[in-house]
Amino acid sequence: MLSMINLNFDLNITEFMTVEFKALADTIELLGGLDIDMTREEVIHLNNYNVETSSACEMEYAELELPSADEFDGAMTRTFHLNGSQAVSYARIRKTAGNDFRRTARQRLVLEKIMEKAKSADLGTLDAVLNTVLHQITTNMDNNKIVSMIQPLLSYTITDQTGFPFAHMEDDGSLTGEDCVLPVTLEYNAIHLHQFFFPDAAYTPSATVLEYSEQIIAECGYGEESVEMALGIDDGGEIPQWTQELQDQADAEAYASGYEGEY
Fold it and tell me: 18: helix, coil or strand?
């Protein structure tokens, strides 16, 4: 995986860490859970996903109570306090508007919430998190290095986050024979990835990146002339900030369609 990322984007990542559901759920449990704003649709999907997630995390299944539409008091979202397996289940949801792009936005939100809780946690809690999850991760870093990173990490602030690729199109298989996301173009996305990570460093794509970019263009047909179009597509990869204006618009659209049920 590291070699693929490095090769395609001219990076030099040397260390990695991966976690399974249980490590993430245990961390959230030890931090006291997370408060997340959710729609009724997300609550329904969360409960469905949590049947499997709670089993994988070796936790008791706890169903999140589904409020009626009236209980939302005219708001699209409501704040719910989620335990470990529920928060992981929330991060797994992809069956809503925005599909997989919205799912990765939810994952980023969960990570931000974990960071917020960790920064305000006491040393005993952080020690418990380390002792619980260190044996549940896969990494090429030794434990001493991981432990040494904790204190500096807690002083950091997440100033920006984003989905990737920046410019892309979705293929249902009609172009490449695969259901996949196409970078438009690989060269464009590599350049802007470097600008995102290293805004003060000059970067010129390597011959390898340029070659792969041309191969993708030849196969899918989306070249430099398609970048602006790709950037203009709303892929649903951001969690919308619901407002009363948007609620009124949704109410009007539902009324116009003759829909009288809950939504």
Answer: strand
**pLDDT higher than 60, residue 251:** no
Looking at the chain, the domain(s) classified CATH 3.40.630.190 span 2-154
Provide the pairing of β-strand 179-183 with 168-172: antiparallel
Alpha-carbon distance 55 to 75, whole Å? 32
What are the residues whose beta carbons fall under 8 Å from the beta carbon of 70, sequence distance 6 or more?
Answer: none
Structure confidence by residue, pLDDT tens digits, 3-26? 999 999 999 999 999 999 999 999
Other CB atoms within 10 A of residue 25 CB: 25
What the block records as the tokens of 38 is 């959710």
Task: Check whether the bond before 185 is cis (ω within 30° of 0).
Answer: yes
**Distance in angstroms (rounded) separating the CA atoms of residues 209 and 191:** 10
Contact 219, 87 (CB under 8 A): no
**Torsions phi, psi for 129 (to 5 deg):** -60, -45
* 101: nearest Cα among 230, 260, 258: 230
The residues that bridge with 34 in the sheet, in sequence order, are 82
Q: 0.90 cut: is pTM over it?
A: no
> Is the CB of residue 220 less than 8 Å from the CB of residue 182?
yes
3-state helix, strand, coil in the chain (%, to 5): 55, 10, 35
- CATH fold for domain 2-154: Aminopeptidase (3.40.630)
Residue with tokens 């030890």: 30
